[in-house]
Design goal:
The complex is a heterodimer of chains A (178) and B (462). Chain A has 178 residues and is an alpha+beta fold. Chain A is built from 5 helices and 4 strands, in the order βαβαααβαβ. Chain A has a 4-stranded antiparallel beta sheet with strand order 2-3-1-4. In chain A, helix 3 (56-82) packs antiparallel against helix 4. Chain B is mainly alpha-helical. Chain B has helices spanning 2-5, 7-14, 26-38, 44-70, 84-109, 119-140, 147-151, 167-200, 204-214, 221-254, 266-292, 301-331, 335-346, 350-365, 370-373, 376-403, 418-441, 447-452. Classes of the chains: A alpha+beta (178), B mainly alpha (462). Chains A and B meet through helix 1, strand 2, helix 2, helix 3 and helix 4 of A and helix 3, helix 8, helix 10 and helix 18 of B.
């Protein structure tokens, strides 16, 4: 049985190829609640974990639309309703003059939603995470690659999973405390 | 494609220098860049440079204090030249910022691996340049504490709202959006590197501060996936943004009916000039930095050569802009328009126009020679002169157009005062002081992106 204070098992790898191969093997083995850690983005590693789509582009699109209509709406409301000023006989609703600000508001809102959306979907800021309990995990931001299989996974078994991870030619396998 | 990306192949095949010297590992790249920040001892040269820059920053603060007490009359601005140095400097600084966004966003979308070692500090340069730029219109209002309700639409007690038909308000939105998006782009790029610093810092303070800024980044593959999506989307958003910003800046001029300003060539010609001056500033900063910090392995000759080529290309667009300006003035058959180039060449400010042609057009032609492009010290001198040239360009546009308009009775002269110069030099001090702090406190080269361009970063398909 898995003791309750175990978050999972962590395998450390020396190079990206072994990590990608190990992730594929673990997925094929039926593990789902797992994550791979690397010091730089590895193309398609998320695919190996079974993650395919991100909702981020949709969030950015919605943010951009809000900025676009919000910016134009503000200009219309200010110039035609709240504070109509006749400048050289131009119409109060002089739409061509409103385009630059509408454009800037679109970009601004879309960019802010891209950043906040990315952080929110990633669950950041998260100052504490069990993986940080492993001292060697500090190398995940330098030159080492890690695969963590969580104890919550249905197939997880402290002994069996450890034996499985040992077959993936890791540098070492560590138990991650929760 | 894969062949093109591999820096070592590129070196052997065509003789161009690599984007990173061979022999580096994930660990050594990380150590080399982070040790500049994490070193306990601050180099003495850093202190000297910082203190000089900080002294000039104080000159700026002193000038601003005097300006607030006395008003804009301490500057040389008056009718007919109401814009003077304040707007010259504003356009100059904001233009410099553009190279940072170009390098980080447009070159990212174009998959140019050589951007990787220069994007971080080019983005920092953008931020600080925009900060300096934003000061000028604010101070030029004369009452910066009232500028809030003149410039930003918020419900104030007077029930007054900004005038959205004015390009000056477009400018407020363009510049503030640009500053915000540049900051977001820069900060998002920093997050994984802040995590590296958190993990490598030996001091408690460093661990806490970098740790808070890194927000618990742990390099998860799921996170990287969203991170890269966000980064690409930001690049896609920043690309039209950077073009729009200097376009809107040029509208400040082009929407007016003043001869010399009222022209449709301004938006493209301003954008090209902005990139031109920005790359000149990146080179002016990069060449000393790589020498002082020993970063020749990361900022290689390839980077310098490529930036020189971009400068040459944009410099030619700028030269074309000058030609078109003169041609259209003649072709318009409007005597006021025709007078503008004539006055620039023969009027009282003739020297600024010839200096401009020398700095911006003649100096750029030296970049045709490979010898110039690959000799850092020569390139530094050329880039520095181009920086001066781009400042002169804005001086010529602002001052010579304003000082003699339609009516001879309203002609006048503009003479900068000591306070004009002290504001300008002060912002250079502020810019450099911020840059010195950045070099000391944050990784000046993106560590995680440097790891991606190492040959061993490639995952082989099996």
């Amino acid at each position: 049985m898995t003791p309750p204070d175990v978050y999972g098992l962590m395998a450390e790898f020396e190079d990206p190829n072994t990590l990608v191969a190990a992730t594929h093997r673990a997925y094929a083995e039926g593990y789902r609640r797992m994550d791979a850690y690397s010091p730089y983005p590895i193309e398609d590693l998320h695919e190996a974990l079974g993650v395919h789509h991100s909702r981020l582009p949709l969030i950015v699109l919605l943010g951009g639309l809000v900025g676009c209509f919000g910016g134009y709406g503000l200009e219309y409301w200010v110039s035609a309703i709240a504070y109509p000023v006749n400048v050289g006989g131009k119409p109060f609703h002089s739409w061509p003059a409103f385009i630059p600000v509408t454009f800037e508001c679109t970009i601004l809102a879309a960019a802010i939603s891209a950043v906040l959306g990315m952080l929110a979907l990633n669950g950041l800021p998260t100052p504490y995470h069990p993986v940080f309990n492993v001292p060697r995990f500090a190398l995940a931001s330098r030159n080492r690659f890690f695969l963590v299989i969580e104890a919550k996974d249905g197939k997880f078994d402290l002994e069996g999973t450890r034996r499985f991870l040992e077959t993936l030619s890791p540098r070492e396998v560590t138990t991650v405390a929760d | 494609m894969a062949e093109m990306d591999d820096p070592n192949v590129a070196m052997t095949a065509s003789g161009t220098p690599a984007v990173i010297a061979p022999g580096y590992t994930f660990g050594s790249v990380t150590d080399k860049i982070s040790s500049i920040v994490l070193a306990r001892k601050t180099p003495i040269g850093w202190w000297i440079g910082f203190l000089i820059a900080f002294a000039l920053t104080n000159l700026l603060f002193g000038t601003i204090a005097y300006l607030v007490v006395k008003g804009v009359g301490i500057w040389g601005v008056n009718i007919p030249v109401g814009w003077g140095f304040a707007i010259v400097n504003f356009v100059w600084w904001i233009g410099i910022g553009h190279a940072g966004t170009l390098i980080s966003a447009i070159l990212l979308l174009l998959k140019q691996t050589w951007r990787t070692s220069i994007n971080r500090f080019a983005e920092a340069m953008t931020l600080f340049a925009v900060a300096c730029a934003a000061l000028f219109p604010l101070l030029h209002t004369g009452r910066p504490w009232l500028a809030a309700y003149w410039l930003f639409p918020y419900p104030n007690t007077m029930g007054v709202w900004p005038q959205f038909r004015s390009p000056l308000i477009w400018d407020v939105f363009a510049v503030s959006t640009y500053a915000t998006v540049s900051f977001l782009f820069w900060f998002v790029g920093l997050i994984p590197d802040l995590a590296t610093l958190r993990d490598r810092s030996q001091s408690k303070v460093g661990q806490v501060i970098y740790g808070m800024l890194a927000m618990g980044w742990r390099g998860s593959a799921r996170h990287w996936h969203r991170y890269e999506t966000a980064y690409l989307l930001l690049a896609g958003l920043a690309t039209p943004l950077v073009v729009s910003v200097h376009t809107v800046v040029s509208f400040d001029f082009a929407i007016a009916i003043l001869p010399g300003w009222h022209t449709t060539i301004f938006p493209p010609y301003f954008v090209a000039g902005a990139i031109y001056s920005g790359f000149a500033m990146v080179l002016t900063l990069a060449i000393p930095i790589r020498a002082v910090y020993g970063l020749e392995d990361f900022i290689t000759l390839r980077h310098l050569q490529n930036m020189a080529k971009v400068m040459l290309a944009t410099g030619l667009v700028v030269a074309y802009g000058y030609l078109t300006e003169a041609f259209i003035a003649w072709y318009s058959a409007d005597k006021f328009e025709m007078f503008v180039p004539f006055n620039r060449v023969t009027g009282p400010y003739w020297y600024s126009y010839y200096a401009l042609i020398f700095c911006n057009i003649l100096m750029a032609q030296t970049l045709w020679f490979k010898k110039v492009r690959s000799t850092p010290i020569v390139l530094f001198v050329v880039a520095f002169i181009i920086n001066c040239g781009m400042w002169l360009e804005r001086f010529v546009i602002v001052v010579t157009s304003l000082h003699r308009d339609f009516l001879t009775s309203s002609w006048g002269m503009y003479k900068p005062t000591f306070w004009d110069w002290s504001t300008f030099v002060g912002t250079i001090g502020l810019f450099l002081a911020l840059f010195f702090l950045f070099l000391r406190l944050l990784p000046m080269i993106s560590i995680f992106e440097m790891r991606t361009i190492l040959p061993q970063a490639k995952v082989s398909e099996e």
